[in-house]
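Protein modeling request. Please complete all fields; requests missing the sequence field cannot be processed.
Requester role: graduate student
Desired output: 3D structure, token encoding
Chains: 1
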Amino acid sequence: MHHRNRWTWALAAVLCMVLLAGMAGCSKESKKESHFKKGETYLAENKFREAVIEFKNVLQIDPNDAKAQHKLGMAQLGAGDPREAYAAFSKAVELDPNSLESRLQLGRLFLMAREPEKAREQARFVLEKEPGNAQGHQLMSMIHLGDRKLPEAIAEAAKAVEADPKKAETHLHLAGLYILNRDLPRAEESFKAAVAAEPGSVQARLALAGFYARTGKPREAEEAYLETTKTAGKEPAAWIALGNFYISQRRLEDAEKQFIQAAEAAPKKAAALIYLGDFYMAWNKRDKALESYRRAADSEPDNIAPQVKLAEHYLAERKIDEASRALEKIQKINPKSHEGTIIKAQIHVAKNEFTEAVTLLQGYLKENPKSAAGHYYLGLAQFGNRDVQQAKAQITEAIKLNPRWIEPRLVLADLSLSTGDSKTAIETLQAVLKEDPKNARALMGLGNAYAVKGDLTKAGSTFEELIRVNPQNAMAYIQSGRVYLARKQEKEALARFEKALALQPGAAEPLRFIVNSYMARGETQKAIDRVEAQLKAAPGNPYFYNLLGALYETKKDTAAAEQYYRKSIESSPNAPDLYVSLASFYVRQNMADKAVGELNAALQKSPNSVSALMALAGIYQGQNKNDLAKENYRKVLKISPKFPPAANNLAYIYADENTNIDEALALAQAAKEALPDNPYMADTLGWVYYRKNVYTRAIVYLKEAAEKLPNQPMVRYHLGMAYHKNGNADLARKELNKALELDAKFKGNEEARAILQKK
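Delivered output (759 residues):
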């Protein structure tokens, strides 16, 4: 009995172990299946990052699961990681060489990477294994298209349709090829066949409607779009497409209705509400846009996209605190999001923290070198730092990475224009307008480029075209008015400026031009009356108060002038330029201490205000308080390391003091490089070379300055001293005498007289 019990327990133990092993195996298989199903669910919901995690979990349990590798690749594609996807599909093919789906995906990736032969290898394998594989024929069609063999591409696409006539995708691909071949009747047939193959396909119906819209059949297009909305269910794309169609027809109220319908139809409203917000932004209904973005954020609190839109909106409105709060929410949702990094960089730029923005984006681009947005915003930050060449390089790289993105091309044109390269600006903008003939910014830039070039005829006609395209664009009227002024057509110019003010009552620039016309005729009171009248249309406008201050100063009514300068600050207490304006008034009244007080008040509110720091440094320099001047110029250069006026002025102080001459040379050279035609930069650089005892080079730059500034005693003095040190006695006497003739008491007059007294 005893032995029997021992054997019974032993047998039970063995059975238990077997059962446990089986249970473990079952548990393992069960976990694998669970992760796989979750991954597929996430894929279906376009939650690609979550799907990636689940399929990786499957592969941790079973590294040799070819299907899981394929699904992982699909999820990584959806998440925007083509390299990782390539690795997954390659592994799937390694595990299962007959995995045709993985081979097709590899072929498409090879095609994207411009490796057509490798793509062709995959397509051939698929078609050898399965001659009637529609996707294989479609891939081969795309390869032929890449080789510019359109007839062969069409032939393969036709085979794909023959292989799978009930799939809309194959018909749509063939339709696209017929369009390229300019065979519109067959293209229309294929679009209709796509709809017939899958009547419930929103994509197919929208493609047909889009075809009609592009080929000048608006009635058929509208009918097709409306039919799509009937079958779309809760898919907002149909209403959005119809809305865009109405925009193209200038039916803005109808467009708005469709975008609102899209937002109401969508089960998850954020995307549709964002689209509605973008519509309002495009038509300058900024309050409604903000409301839509806020509703989008409220509808999906964990969705980054609405917060990004809110941040961008606040940045455009210069509401930095609100943008920062939106950034906090973005970072809370995903601390490592690309969007968060870009928004943070934009906030730095908005605060004039250009160096911080540059540092942030350079680090970001080390990990994301193919980010067009990263390069674009780095370029903007570098431009803020006055590093124009680096800015152009980064913007150019952004364009290479995303040639269809118009914004960087517009900025490149602006950068080119800022360096006097009107040719590049014109070519860039003409290319944009070829793609988008009604682009308001491109038309504006092109008009400006022609004006810089001196071609007033083309500038004027371009601004008139902008007015035709966008008659509500106030700036178009302003620029048109400026062209008329340059042509001495004052009546036409003033009419344009008045129109700009009618459209934008708070615009300071057109009012300034109107005021200037009164002042040119000596009609100061009429100018004052005109500004006061405009204040009724735009009550509390700080820049109008500022303009009144300047007009009363002209009238020698300093009390009224001071009152209005102050009123402008009261209306906009966070605008440092208004404090600078009041400070400048105090300087003109020989009240430097009051000027310093106003500038310090400005800097308390805006510590990185370059204009306030430069004005403060200028006052100290004028008072010979060089240590304080240098301190403020250095602050400017910390904010904007290549700001030419600060670099030039600091270099000049060093040269005048005969200290830090090597640093002075670097600063002066940078300033001259940035502003090569500015005579003050030439004077400073020449004076620095004088202090370095390099007199021949000093003379080159000082002659350049003297030719452009013949009535500046200090410039003539500098040149005279350089001639003196170089042994050019007659030229030295000529320049020093001229300096004393212009101003007998200039700084250095005693040294000049001493040299002249020598025989």
